[in-house]
Design brief:
Elements: H1 2-18, H2 31-42, H3 51-80
Helix pairs in contact: 1-2
């Protein structure tokens, strides 16, 4: 999940750069231009738009793995007793 927090702004900028100019009024000349334009016009928080659903999806994706770890730890404890 930490990786998602770090890379989400990059994904946001990548998406904005991929949008046609019909959907995105300003054209960006590159990543640095996109970062500075979005940060200046919309604030740094705009780089994290959509982070909530992304984190929820990551949590749901890892939930069965965590459930499996806790049940296997419980079984190991019972076997060792």
């Amino acid at each position: 999940m930490t990786g998602t927090l770090i890379t989400h702004p990059l994904d946001t900028i990548r998406l904005r750069m991929a949008l046609p100019k019909a959907f995105c009024a300003q054209g960006y000349s590159g990543m640095v231009s996109a970062f500075s334009t979005v940060s200046a016009r919309e604030g740094v928080g705009a780089l994290y738009k959509g982070l909530g659903p992304t984190m929820a999806g990551r949590g749901l994706h890892s939930f069965p793995f965590q459930l499996n770890l806790s049940s296997s730890a419980h079984r190991t404890t019972q076997l060792n007793s």
